[in-house]
Amino acid sequence: MEGISKILVSEDEIKEICARLGRQISEDYRDKKLFLVSVLKGAVVFMADLMRNITCDCEIDFMAVSSYSGTKTTGVVKFRKDLDINPEGCDILLVEDILDSGITLSYLKNMLLQRNAASIKVCAFLDKPANRQADISADYVGKVIPDEFVVGYGLDYEEKYRNLPFVGVLSPEVYADKQERS
Ligand code: IMP
Ligand code: MG
Asked: CA–CA separation, 90 vs 141, rounded Å?
């Protein structure tokens, strides 16, 4: 695949991860009021797979934020879409594609806490701990990865590559070219 230097999480591994996380979450939330809240757009693919591996009752909702420009976080979270539900009294599980600097998730977690959610946990498909800036960790992690820019399985570079069925490392030439041009 053009622009991808290697496959980091294969389709088979993705299936195993979703099955494992789904089992764990179904057990932990058996007697709770589970609301899966996914962060658009990157997490939609993971959300769709994860929710089909969850066997307890749950509802879903979506939020949209952005903090990225190219391959770098701007550190400023832009809020683009709020929840439709009122999170008060709900057991919220934030479903994210990747936990990187942690700025996005700590912003969302604090915001939901202020709105009196009963509990808030985080499920991240990928975790890049090397780049953490905010004091946050995921309660459920699909896979810990090294500090490389990855795409596919919902993750994008400038809105491209989201449709790849696996997670791959983006060749640095792809964004080096771009930086030269701009
Ligand atoms: P954070 O706020 O730095 O933790 O970044 C969270 C968001 O940044 C994720 O939801 C992704 O959309 C994006 N992001 C972080 N790392 C990557 C990456 O390696 N590839 C694509 N998007 C990324
Ligand atoms: Mg994103």
From this structure: 21
Q: What global pTM score does this model have?
A: 0.92
Catalytic positions = 100
- CA 18 to ligand 1 centroid distance, Å: 19
**Token pair for 119:** 């509990």
CATH code of 11-146, in short, is 3.40.50.2020
Mind listing the pLDDT tens digit of every residue in the chain (182 residues)? Answer: 789 999 999 999 999 999 999 999 999 999 999 999 999 999 999 999 999 999 999 999 999 987 766 667 667 778 889 999 999 999 999 999 999 999 889 989 998 999 999 999 999 999 999 989 999 999 999 999 999 999 999 999 999 999 999 999 999 889 886 655 44
Cα separation, 122 vs 99, in Å, equals 9
